[in-house]
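Hey, resending since the last one bounced:
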Amino acid sequence: MKLNKLLILTAITGLAFTSCENEMKQDPELDVVATGDGVNYDGQTITVQKGTPITFQLGGENDFLTFFSGEAGSKYEYKDRAQVATDQIESSKLTLDIKTEYGKLDMIDFKVLISKTFEGLNKSNFEADSILVEQHDGWQTLLSTADLPNPTSTKSYELDMLPYLGERVALAFVYKGVDNSQTQPKVYIQNLQIVNQMTDGTSSSLAASSLGFTPLNMMYKHNLSDQKSMTSNRPYGTVSNNTSGIWNLSNISSFFIHSSGGGSPLKYSWLTSNLFMVNACTPDAGTPLKNISQSLDSYTYTYTEAGTYTATFVATNGNYDQQKRITREFTVKVTE
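The structure tokens again:
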């Protein structure tokens, strides 16, 4: 009797699993119709004046729905793009602001470097890494101490990256104290990004958060008195406070290396990025409209600039094991 019950339970469980599995394999459905006052729609092309809302009436069963407007940063064709073709780039700039505080610039030797031949840090062998950065002969100087603003002020920079397109490069900041008769300044790196301007008038950017900076705290073995508060990962670590001569990356849009008072030991630290492509970019992203627990009958979107766009709706059914998706594309002509 117990065996029969077990067999029945197993059969029911198997049927339930099969049913669930089949349900997950069901193709998504999606019907889209463009409507609205001042909206002309012929089944494929939408014509509308800029600033006029377009209401998309939605039908069909699907688990997830995403909308790509076709504007810069939201193009379905670029959803998997990790690099911009070099022949599509008109200009490429490394832009950043540098702010200095306290002391005099004469107290430090500061450099912003770039290399097309740097092999990258090991990140687990400090001795090898410290020798590597110092002896690498491929570093090119983008900025030096003479280019910095005097404390306390901020200066903006635009550095040409066109010579580095298509190359795997490393970016490095070097802070080295040379005189401790006065305060060694605090240096902020702010709003760092690489901006690529395309031939079609659009642009893409690569933010500092994508570059994977790693410090090399060159003085960590000296156990300096004003660095004692740093107790973990002293060779490669960062801090979240004001520790003299140590990089603070808590806010990657405004990171800094802290000052040292007059008479304090000279500080020395590198901050080196991972290898990256100058023409790398963040893939375009759509706007999530619904998930499996929601329903949606319509979606309204407004284009604010004249132009021709490809609007794309992506409907997806799936689970951890599989996904099926369909798309619906429309040409949107936005007039003045």
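The first helix runs from residue 2 to 24.

Sorry for the duplicate.
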